[in-house]
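Review form for a predicted model. The reviewer records the input and the model, then writes brief findings.
Reviewer: anonymous (R2)
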Amino acid sequence: MAKPKRAAHKKKKIISKKPTTSNWERLRPQLTKSAKKKGSKHAARDLTDALQQQAVKKTVKKPHTVAPDTYVALDCEMVGVGSNGRESALARCSVVDEQGKVLYDRHVQVDERVTDFRTKYSGVRAKDLKNDSVTFRECQQKVAALLRGKILVGHALSNDLKVLLLPHPRQQMRDTARWPPLMRTTRHGKRRPRKLRDLVLEHLDRKIQEGEHGSVEDATAAMDLYKLFAADWEASLRVASA
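Model under review:
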């Protein structure tokens, strides 16, 4: 007589719960608020987004804290004079401190006939030079006083100082157009300045100069860009002078 076959016992699958990660514990409260009720697809998507945002925040370079009352940023807007409008004359001048506070911002009267207002880039119009504007001499004296003894920040500072007819010690200048790490290298190995707009977008994730330029906006952007690299910048100067 054949022996009866034993009933096959199915092995139970042991499901072990994976320990929750620190990321999950940290992000779960915000996900329960933002995830939709239906299914886990939305929660998974929200978790992915949150982790990506967290990774981006970790890679963002924090601006260096600079000493108060030590730095100022300068930017000028020019208009064209002469028969072809290629000669530049000062039309607006702005100075901000290390926190972006406006210390000076005035339109400047032009003694010569303006042949090109360059409004698309300068933002200057004929009425600006007539209403509430100051003489070149007044502007020059005021700006000279603000720059005295300060570390001067800006982009292509030689152009601004030239149009103001003002000197400034080279060792007290921080020009974002001339610091090597912020310059581009040509295929021939030469360094060339980059546009302030491109540098600010790349390093500060901020858009400027989308329309007419503004000297306050540009001076503030140059200061913020400098502060982002201030520690490395000052270190490189100490090495160069050693």
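Findings: Strands lie at 71-81, 87-97, 102-108, 114-116, 133-134, 151-154, 173-175, 184-185, 191-192.
Further findings: The domain at 71-241 is CATH 3.30.420.10 (Nucleotidyltransferase; domain 5).
Recommendation: see findings above.
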